[in-house]
Input
Amino acid sequence: MTSTFRLESTRLARSPRVALLFALLAGLLLGAGFPSVAHAQLNSNIANINLNAVLTTSLTVSAAPGLVNFALPPNGVANGSAPVNITTSWTLSPSVGNVTVWAYFSSAAAALSEGSGDNIPSSKVSGSPNGGAFTAFTGAGPFGAASSLQIVSFKILGSNKSGTRSDTLALQISTAGLSLPAGTYTGTLNIQAQAL
Output
């Protein structure tokens, strides 16, 4: 019986597949039973980096075109050459509840002037915000007393703390009852927004 066992063992030992299988099994047993010191896990300390990101509040308006022309009649109404397109952009804090856009003149008595004392008052200039009725620039606003016109007012809610909107303003000038001399009358219409 012993010689048969030796003969069988010798045949198995000569087989390369069997030898490879034994080698793999021996390696697995050694690796599982004795973990290698060279592969031990070592973690470092934790380094912290503080982050600080600031989104500042902003409220801006832009208006185009920068020039609106009028062909004034001696006693009548003239429409502006183009409506003014107003773009309002904002990034606001949660405490803001409302944004209002205003158009106004610095002087109610002289919205437009030809330079020698003849003026067109703001009460003779009218605006039509977003296709609405024409209204004279005689309102009280935060930027111009008795020479303002509100373009739009909208609520700021949780969903629109940051955004952009577009509005239009058509313009008219009435010369009725002014008895103006011929000349070139110039003035500046201001557009400004306020967040409260």
User: Anything to note?
Assistant: Helices lie at 2-14, 16-33. The longest strand covers residues 162-174. The domain at 58-195 is CATH 2.60.40 (Immunoglobulin-like).
